[in-house]
């Protein structure tokens, strides 16, 4: 059974304080790892797709990396508007996405 | 502008009522999905469709049903709502199964 575990569950940062979120996964044949951002009461917003170990993607203050067992989402010099829940999901051979529980990030000014 | 829409955004109903949650997308995607998400919890897939007249149950058992008569439309129906159905329902679509899924804003359902 595919499993996705995200840590920490919650993260409080001061504005400008860089940090990393972890997504550990156990799947049979990874076919894609996806990062989403979700604001309260809204649907998830797509951020990145990673397909193979060593791959990196960047968007503004966010950078996602992938190894054979985990992915990291690095937030560099975060701003209050980066406050959200960040979700990780994996797609394996069954073509369906399995989501982790998310990391709630709060950036204080 | 290509987008995915869900209505209503919020719904409060009494036990036993029949409801339909609407989901439409203008992105031309063949693949569509319904997820259920309780506050602070993971998204769980409850239904998916790979095209017109194709529907499958997801990983989480659900008493809801879906239909896919048109490519752009994927409604979810509860014949008799119960308090245990209280949750947020999220609709998504993708160009292909290997591609990222794009989500609608969600419907927050409360059954009294």
Count the DSSP helices of chain B: 0
How many distinct folded domains of chain B?
Answer: 1
Q: Which structural class fits the helix and strand makeup of chain A?
A: mainly beta
Order of helices and strands of chain B: EEEEEEEEEEE
Tally of DSSP helical segments of chain A:
0
For the largest beta-sheet of chain B, the strand count, sense and barrel status come to: 7 strands, mixed
- CA(first)-CA(last) distance of chain A: 41 Å
Order of helices and strands of chain A: EEEEEEEEEEE
Shape of chain B: globular
Query: What is the architecture of chain A at the second tier of CATH?
Result: Sandwich
Radius of gyration of chain B: 13 Å
Low-confidence stretches of chain A: none
Explain what this protein looks like in three dimensions:
The complex is a heterodimer of chains A (109) and B (112). The mean pLDDT of chain A is 94. Chain A has no helices and 11 strands. In chain A, strands 2, 4, 5, 9, 10 and 11 form a 6-stranded mixed β-sheet that branches. In chain A, strands 1-3-8-7-6 form a 5-stranded antiparallel β-sheet, with no helix packed on it. Chain A starts with a strand and ends with a strand. Helix content of chain A is 0%, strand content 58%. Chain B contains no helices and 11 strands. Helices cover 0% and strands 49% of the residues of chain B. The N and C termini of chain B lie far apart (37 Å). Classes of the chains: A mainly beta (109), B mainly beta (112). The interface between A and B is medium-sized, with 23 and 23 residues.
Q: Can you lay out the helices and strands and say which pair or pack?
A:
The complex is a heterodimer of chains A (109) and B (112).
Chain A (H helix, E strand, L loop, with lengths): L2 E5 L2 E5 L4 E8 L5 E7 L6 E6 L5 E4 L2 E5 L3 E6 L8 E8 L5 E3 L3 E6 L1
Parallel strand pairs in A: 2-11
Antiparallel strand pairs in A: 1-3, 3-8, 4-5, 4-9, 6-7, 7-8, 9-10, 9-11
Chain B lengths: L3 E4 L2 E4 L5 E7 L5 E7 L5 E9 L2 E4 L7 E2 L9 E3 L8 E8 L7 E2 L3 E5 L1
Parallel strand pairs in B: 2-11
Antiparallel strand pairs in B: 1-3, 3-8, 4-5, 4-9, 5-6, 7-8, 9-10, 9-11
